[in-house]
Amino acid sequence: MQASAVEIRRSSRRRRTVSAYRDGDRTIVLLPARMSEAEEQRWVGVMLDKLAAQESKRMLGDAELSARAKVLSGQYLEGRAKPKTVRWVTNQNTRWGSCTPAEGSIRLSHRLQGMPEYVLDYVLLHELAHLLVPGHGPRFWRLLEAYPRTERAQGYLEGVVAASRLPHLPEARDE
Ligand SMILES: [Zn+2]
After folding, report:
1. 118 C-alpha to ligand 1 centroid (Å)
2. Which residue segments constitute the domains of the chain, with CATH numbers given?
3. Fewer CB atoms inside 10 A, N or C side of the chain?
4. Which residue has the higher pLDDT, 173 or 101?
5. 100-109 burial, b for 16+ CB within 10 Å, e for fewer?
6. How far is the CA of 117 from the centre of ligand 1 (A)?
7. Residue 132, class by beta-carbon neighbours within 10 Å (0-12 exposed, 13-18 middle, 19+ buried)?
8. 52 or 115, which is more confident?
9. 79 C-alpha vs ligand 1 centroid, how far in Å?
10. pLDDT tens-digit readout, 74-98
11. Ligand 1 centre distance from Cα of residue 57 (Å)
12. Rounded to the nearest whole angstrom, what is the distance from the C-alpha of residue 173 to the centroid of ligand 1?
């Protein structure tokens, strides 16, 4: 999945090395100044794949997800949200997360894997808040007020949805 914006920076001091990193929801790719358009496209593809692979290696397991939920609950909800289970699911394609307050269970869509941490935290916190308040009324949103990146995370997720509706661009490849 490639939803974040890619920014290409060329440096005349850079001769051979190509590198890339994430900056919030942007991806910065550093390239040498002299590089053809085709080479540039190829390298951007290579670096995006590399970053994605690193990120999926960092991916949290269900146990770490539960630990993360505990931290977020403590930090933003005074520890009041206490889920019994937090796990990834692959059968959830129209929602990022869901919960069943009666069971204290939270499920997160596997499509969040590899997204920036602040986005995952937002979805997790959102579901934690639902354990306390159902629906999306003012009481619910008040619980999320303390989380500083709600709007940014929502924007990121909206961007992902919008991008998935765009026609697919042909892959960059070697001619
Ligand atoms: Zn909700």
Report:
1. 17
2. 5-57 (no CATH), 62-164 (3.30.2010.10)
3. C
4. 101
5. eeeeebbbbb
6. 19
7. middle
8. 115
9. 19
10. 999 999 999 999 999 888 777 899 9
11. 28
12. 40
